[in-house]
Automatic annotation (TrEMBL):
GO terms for biological process: aerobic electron transport chain. It is a multi-pass membrane protein. Its main location: membrane. Pfam families: Cyt_bd_oxida_I. One of its GO terms (cellular component) is plasma membrane. This is Unannotated protein.
Length: 484
């Protein structure tokens, strides 16, 4: 089957968005870890905290730079491939994104520059505060972007203007306090802390295993400390993800019941409803062949009541057809079907949860292995070092795939379908060219990212150098000091 402009636009947005979001949770989580390490150094004067600050600070900067480059493409796509969407919701969608760029990103970039060049220039407390402000900027950035996305899940604070055919912003506060936003933000941030903690654990474990029997063995206590601190962040954040995810599931069932039904491939309403841990079915997801289920769990996840009723796909589809109308010639994703792609929705939901819980289990294993001064050095821990950071990272990606696929066919739930959002004046050939170009570019950036990260990780933390303010601090023309 030949791809049309809509299919290509979907693929391009999916590839660029998932790729970009690989950097986002690491940036948020790692900025908090670096700020925490620098604060620990200020409080204790222990040189290991300063070495960890600079070591993971370097890794943070590499990740931040690549995340910045890949994020720019997202905004261009709204105008290039999704112009009808931009025209329809630009008044609402553009407001939080504009504030994100003017406030949050400005905060991040300004204080990150001060942190980079301020070593041996700024007073220690002020310098450490710069990284906390960078982290605060990442939180602001996430909040405004998630507010825009939450409008797509549950549109509020707008009024439809039939003369212009546009949704117009009437209540900015309602957009910023959308009930979906209020549960999504803590869930995403906690997942980012999980990812940052797992990243630190993976790097530290790698150093512990690599240092066995070498000159680097003297650094084992430092890397053990990093592994334990990262594991604690991973575990505590994982518990926060679990709690916030439970609340989010109930809100999701309230505002998008089809998404919860699709997450379980539940075609008919059930009370109570079981949750299937694993299912083998037909390719279209409509017929179950084999399943391992937990009784009543889906009812609890959806309603908070183990005996609660969960609406199925078929009755919900009938409700949507009655509300929004039926297009007899509609494609699978377009208005008239109102059903997301069930196999991908079903499995992305389970991969999200499964990888998240696996990451928490890995964190517990690291805490056990490093108890009472121990440091794991066996080669088998290399697999943990490599795999553990990937678990919450991929769980984040599958979570967003589920969130966006489960909303289909809607771009803005109940208002505009994805099919109606695509740019009418852009041909399939033009979209295919941009898709191939961006995919190739992102492939090159992936190689650059891995080369820089692996090179910095292999080098390890730099030797300790006592930081002091320079003698020419009072000279306004003195050159700035670059820390790396």
């Amino acid at each position: 089957m030949d791809l049309d402009a809509l299919d290509i636009a979907r693929w391009q947005f999916a590839i660029t968005t998932v790729y970009h979001f690989l950097f986002v949770p690491i940036t948020i989580g790692l900025s908090a870890m670096v700020a925490g390490y620098q604060t620990a150094w200020l409080r204790t004067g222990n040189e290991q905290w300063l070495r960890l600050t600079k070591f993971f600070g370097k890794l943070f900067l590499i990740n931040f730079a690549l995340g910045l480059v890949t994020g720019i493409v997202q905004e261009f796509q709204f105008g290039m491939n999704w112009s009808d969407y931009s025209r329809f919701v630009g008044d609402v969608f553009g407001a939080p994104l504009a504030i994100e760029g003017l406030l949050a990103f400005f905060l991040e970039s300004t204080f990150l520059g001060l942190w980079i060049f301020g070593w041996d220039r700024l007073p220690r407390l002020l310098h450490a505060s710069c990284m906390w402000l960078v982290h605060l900027g990442t939180l602001f950035s996430a909040y405004f972007i998630l507010a825009a996305n939450s409008f797509m899940q549950n549109p509020v604070g707008y009024e439809y203007n039939p003369e212009t055919g546009r949704a117009e912003l009437t209540d900015f506060l309602a957009v910023m306090t959308n009930q979906v936003q209020l549960v999504t933000f803590p869930h995403v941030i906690a997942a980012a802390y999980m990812t940052g903690g797992a990243f630190v654990v993976g790097v530290a474990l790698w150093q512990l295993v690599r240092a066995k029997g070498t000159e680097g063995s003297a650094d084992r206590p430092m890397y053990r400390t990093a592994a334990r601190s990262g594991a604690w962040v991973l575990l505590v954040a994982g518990l926060a993800v679990t709690v916030s995810g439970d609340v989010q599931g109930k809100i999701m069932t309230e505002v998008q019941p089809m998404k919860m039904a699709a997450a379980e491939a539940l075609y008919e309403t059930e009370q109570p409803a079981a949750f299937s841990v694993f299912t083998i079915g037909t390719p279209d997801g409509k017929t179950e062949k084999f399943s391992v289920t937990i009784p009543n769990l889906l009812s609890f996840l959806a309603t908070g009541d183990p005996e609660g009723e969960v609406e199925g796909i078929n009755p919900l589809r009938e409700q949507y057809v009655a509300t929004y109308g039926q297009d007899p010639g509609a494609s699978y994703y377009s208005a008239g079907d109102y059903t997301p792609y069930i196999p991908l929705t079903y499995w992305s939901f389970r991969f999200m949860m499964g990888l998240g819980f696996a990451g928490m289990a890995g964190g517990l294993a690291v805490l056990w292995a490093t108890r009472r001064g121990r440091a794991p050095t066996a080669q088998r821990w290399t697999w943990v070092a490599v795999g553990l950071p990937l678990m919450p990272l991929l769980a984040n990606s599958f979570g967003w795939i589920f969130t966006e696929i489960g909303r289909q066919p809607w771009a803005v739930f109940g208002l505009m379908t994805t099919e109606q959002s695509v740019s009418p004046g852009v041909s399939a050939t033009e979209m295919l060219l941009s898709l191939l170009t961006l995919t190739a570019l992102y492939g090159v950036l992936a190689v650059v990212e891995l080369k820089l990260l692996l090179g910095a990780i292999a080098k390890g933390a730099d030797p300790y150098v006592e930081p002091v303010l320079r003698d020419d601090d009072n000279d306004p023309d003195r050159p700035l000091a670059f820390a790396y």
